[in-house]
Amino acid sequence: MRFPHVSLSNKLLQQETHTTGTPRSKRKLNPKDVIQKKIKRGEYTRQRRGKVYVSRRKDKRDVLCITTVNHPKLIEVSNRYGQKKIKP
Q1: Three-state SS annotation for the chain
Q2: Which of 46, 50, 52 is nearest to 64 (CA)?
Q3: Residue 58, Cβ neighbours under 10 Å: how many?
Q4: How many C-beta atoms surround the C-beta of residue 30 within 10 A?
Q5: Domain count within the chain
Q6: In a designed cystine with 6, which of 14, 27, 29, 68 is the match (CB 3.0 to 4.6 A)?
Q7: Rounded to an integer, what distance in angstroms lies between the CA atom of residue 74 and that of residue 86?
Q8: Which InterPro entries does UniProt cross-reference here (predicted)?
Q9: Over the stretch 43-70, which tens digit does the pLDDT of each residue have?
């Protein structure tokens, strides 16, 4: 599924089907707090609507994620040069 949204994720969850994806930010039922909040590079914000988690992270661009499978969390990752970054 390419562009899931909150209501579709809830309907699929009732049928015991989990979703994960990157929705468009202008969907109607996206949480306004996550979409409109000003965040700086490297910051992360998330909100839960029922059992659906909607999160947004800013690196070079804003990335919006929706999931019903996992609780979003940040982990530390190192690249091949040994530099460490925190990513969801």
Answers
A1: CCCCCHHHHHHHHHCCCCCEECCCCCCCCCCHHHHHCCCCCCCEEEEEECCEEEEEEECCCEEEEEECCCCCCCEEEECCCCCEEEEC
A2: 46
A3: 15
A4: 21
A5: 1
A6: 29
A7: 6
A8: PGBD
A9: 888 888 788 888 888 888 888 888 888 7
CA dist., res. 55 & res. 76, Å (int)? 18
Burial status of residue 9 (CB atoms within 10 A of its CB: 0-12, 13-18, 19 or more): buried
Q: Is residue 1 part of a domain?
A: no
Sheet-wide strand order for 20-21: 20-21, 62-67, 52-58, 44-49
Q: Can you give the residue range of the structural domain that contains 79? A: 6-87
pLDDT 10s digits, 5-33: 777 888 888 888 888 888 877 777 777 77
